Structure formats: C-alpha cells, structure tokens
Amino acid sequence: MALTQHEAEVKDVFLLKLIECNAENPVNVDEINMLKNHTIPESKTAKCLLACVFKKTSWMDEKGLFVMENAVKLTEEKHPKNSPALENSKKLFELCTKVNEEIFNDGEEDCERAAKLARCLIENATKLGFQLK
C-alpha cells in the first residue's frame, strides 16, 4: 500500500532535514539506503545524523530529549483534525517517550537516544497502521 499524502508530507520534512544534516554527519551510500529502508545503521555517524534530524525538526530538544508536543504539532499540520492517523500518531509518540527515561553514555551528542527513538518509531508505526514505504 502506498503512503497517504499526509504520510508523504511528513516523510518529505524529514528527508529535507536528512540532507541538511548529512553535511555535518556524512554517512555512506549504504547507510543512506539503510535509513531509506527504515533500518538504523550502527555507526556513530549515522546515529548522530538522526540526532541532527530530530533536533532540526524540534522533535528533540537541546538536551537530547524527545519532545512529544513538537512531534504532535508537526503531525497536526499534516493530518486532518480528529483523523485516525492523528490519533494513532499521538499513541505512537506516547509509546516512544520512554526513550527519555533511559540513560545513555554519549554526553551531549544524543546520538544513542536518537537511534533508540528512531527504532521505537519504526517498530511501532506499522502496528498503528502507518505505511513506511
């Protein structure tokens, strides 16, 4: 099944930020393909690329914490009010706020938390009816 228009718009926002962040955190072609296929590479650079993307979309704050309110705000801009997709987005974000409770040892880089957040979003999105392709 293809992406809905709203899902495609959200994905486009992230792709634009990914391109911007690749200048600061260059990853190789294989890692880009992994990300496009919703697999998180293990390299520190790829994880830091994700942290950059989440920060540029305001989904992570300067302390590296997931900001659910900002994720909901972007989703509200892209999904009609009271739509099942909007409600499921909120459920997805609520599930993934648990990454804020974990302690990571990468200082202020926030790369490990970003990778964990991305994994949580990917693993749970399809369970809530979202298309990732």
UniProtKB/TrEMBL annotation:
GO MF annotation terms: odorant binding
InterPro entries reported in the protein's UniProt record:
PBP/GOBP
A Pfam family this protein belongs to? PBP_GOBP
Identification of the protein by name? (apollo) hypothetical protein
The organism encoding this protein is: Parnassius apollo (Apollo butterfly)
Q: What is the taxonomic lineage of the source species?
A: Eukaryota, Metazoa, Ecdysozoa, Arthropoda, Hexapoda
